[in-house]
Amino acid sequence: MNSPFEISPDSCFSGGVRAPVIHSQSTVPARWSPGVDVTVTHALVFALLSEHLTMEKVLLEHKSLMKKRFECIFEGVEKKNNKTLLNKVYTDLYITEGESEEVNGEHEVWQLEAASRKPTARDGTAINCNDIFKPLPGQEEHIRVVLTKGIAGIGKTVSVQKFILDWADGSANQDVDFIFALPFRELNLVKSRRYSLLGLLLEFHPELRGLGDSRMWNGRKTVFLFDGLDESRLKMDFGKTRLADAGEVSSVDALVANLIEGKLLPSAFIWVTSRPAAASQIPSRYVDQLTEVRGFSVPQREEYFRKKVRDGAQAGRIISHIKVSRSLHIMCHIPVFCWISATVLQKMLAEEDDREIPKTLTEMYAHFLVIQTNIRSQKYHGESEADREKLLCSHRDVLLKLAELAFLHLENGNLMFYEEDLRECGIDVDEASVYSGMCTEIFREELVFFQRKVYCFVHLSIQEFLAAVYVFHCYVSRSMAALRSFLKGKSRASPGNIPLDVLLSSAVNKASESSNGHLDLFLRFLHGISLEANQRLLLGLLKQTKNDPSSVKKTIQNLKEMQRKNISPERCINLFHCLIEMNDSSVHDEIQAFLKSERGSVKLLSPAHCSALAYMLLMSEEPLEELDLRRYKTSDEGRRRLLPAVRYCRTARIGGCRLTEKMCETVAWALRAASSHLRELDLSDSVLLDSGVRMLTSSLMSPSCKLETLRLSHCRLTEKGCAALTPALCSAGSPVRTLDLSGNDLQDPGVEALSGGLKSPECKLEALRWSSGCASLASALTSNPSHLRELDLSYNHLGDQGVGLLSGYACRLALDPDTAYGELSLCREKRKATFASVPDWSPDRPERFLLCPQVLCGDGLTGRAYWEVEWTGTRVIIGGAYKGLSRKGAADVAGLGATENSWDLECSARSGYVAWHHEKRTEVPARGGLSGRVGVFLDWSAGTLSFYTVSLETVTHLHTFRATFAEPVYPGFWVSPESSVSLQHLT
């Protein structure tokens, strides 16, 4: 009999197949879940079951092989003998949401220093590597492509390895059917070949051959892992080639690009890791989640040392020593450097020779090189060489060849090397295994698919150290050909006679040309090796030392006095680190004394002092509340070198500085850096220009920007700069609440553009200082009045529209007769004051001014208010004061403008206008001539009191007082004999 049963596509192509009951009939009517009636033969049923069993077999084999491949970690130890299970040593790394997709233009050690100041408790959500595809709290969108960035050696590859291992042993992500690991270093080996997607996978995972057809896995939940984007030599051209068929043959770079784009296998999940500088190779529109590996926290680092060093007392001493040295402390956020430090310091402490314990990076790496070479010598030759010089001499050829390889590839930032790279450096590929066997902890050999090999230094810093060793070796041995790039035009005729300080100066110039500082650490090592004490650590590798106290002294002086304007402030701070590597702490000590003294122990800060000060401010435990460059007695170059500290302060005042384009880049970077604390930026009176505004605007639109107050007064902005700034103000999530654009010639197009931004419902601006036309502004305020709370119209020549705008804040005032001086007469409904023909000294008026011919209005004002006063005669004073202004004193005590709680504008037919506050006199130019009518605008919450001349055609700004008002302000007047003041009605 016929027996119907259900067959669904999921039944055939998923791990949970439901086997049908088969009877003796040759055919069985079946019903597919999509609703299409078909007849299934016994042959088809058995074929489906066979395919299912094949799939299950392949899955099991695939998981088994992946577990075997990724279950061990190699912490600088040779693979064949001392494998360590990853699960035994794995320490959770701090993975968090990344700050942006843009290129980070800093050396990775700088990025590490910034990361070290980020408190993990309040700086993002930690992400377990097994949850990398799960949305973060508050996110609802599907996460398909994840890009994880982190500096070299920070733990990206280990995180990927842990993700694979936990899947393979059944402890996580069991809903995933396949994980395909395709490291870029291995993809590079087949970059010139063409494959279908299945063909490419078969090269990396031969166990898949049993599947036969890509349709067998196409419906499965699949994860592709692309580790090491920074190592990629593929030319991925996103958006150019479209591949949708997994069976179509194409180039490797096209296959990878289409997988990431989602055109090929759109249901597949993608995880890419990269060093920061290469992360932007993948356009942000293809990345659903950007994450960042930050390495060891301080507790994790200490936990590592206590596990690594079994002697508790030794571990404690190592931890204490690391804390003392800032450079060692920062580097120990890198797991690999923790291992280097533990290796060196454990041995040094065991020998109980505190005098030799490394305190600088150069000393640490020199000891590491010696220790590892001795370990290898003992392993391969059965003996330990106590004589350091003999040891290095016996391995000199091997180490120098590795040093040459390190130097030649440092310029391009290559961390991975292939056979052709070794040949180019004169290394016999057949001997490469000997090199890696002798120096596994320095130079590592990795076996990739079909027995191809790649080579790498354990960490980029080791490559940088060996590159510096090679340069110094060439110098002392007078093999100068390799140093041409550093020397450029200097002393080429007789290279053997080049002084050491000239070589180091040339190296500084070369490193300063780098936009991302990739030679910074190399430069530190080179200066450290210039000391004879460090050269003695490397004797044997170096045939001789170079003891040149005069050159060392000149080098130190050059580092302190370097004033090349094309060197970025970050590179200048690196010069301070070079001094530390040369054991010169004089600049550091002087700045420490300066910071401890209120007046400073250094009368004039040199540029070197400013670089050191910037670094110390950056390394402070707490961010600086305010950095005002004008407070420091230094040169323009010194102020430029202080700029990197901007990111680690809450308020930065850079007004009055000559900002170059490079300096604007530094400030712009501070705005968008996730580690930045900057909330207020004052660039007033700086030559910023429109190009500088465009740089700032792009940073203001960054999701990492937290700036709330931006002051750009008198920065020579035009309508182009104003138009460039507008998108940042009306972008969703813009943090800017206060904007000062006064004193800029914005012209009508710029005003209209900014006014258009103010109309946007996204604009959250609450305070605006403005000095360019009011017609568009009035319209903007009418359209979007909900957020703007403070309006400062200082320096405005307002015109007819401006008069209308100010009139919107007009208030009705009346003079208070109880305050009037006895010889003043009030008339016209108490709105006019003149000298009286008959004085009134009634004794029942205790609020009356006794010696000053003054009168106050009856109402105190808060909020915004505008009033106009017409005056006649020789001299009057128009102003405002708190109610508590003295009534009994003379003009120096009770006069308007004489105290800290009163402000005035003196109007004289003979001498024009003078502003007074707290006995400070400010002459005010009579723009457009003297006028008999004065307008006064109070914005109490903004802390401004502004005065204008008023004519039939325009309102012209005269002067603005700035204060933090604590009480209501009472309008007041001083009236001289034969003069009068009259409050005007404004309709």
Automatic annotation (TrEMBL):
Primary localisation category: cytoplasm
SMART domains attached to this UniProt entry: FISNA, LRR_RI, PRY, SPRY
Subcellular localization: Cytoplasm
GO cellular component: cytoplasm
MF terms in GO: ATP binding
PROSITE patterns in alphabetical order: B302_SPRY, NACHT
Superkingdom assignment: Eukaryota
Residues in NACHT domain copies: 144-278
This protein's UniProt keywords: ATP-binding, Cytoplasm, Leucine-rich repeat, Nucleotide-binding, Repeat
Domain B30.2/SPRY, chain residue ranges per copy: 793-987
PANTHER family tied to this protein: NACHT, LRR AND CARD DOMAINS-CONTAINING
Protein name from the UniProt record: Uncharacterized protein
Organism (species): Denticeps clupeoides
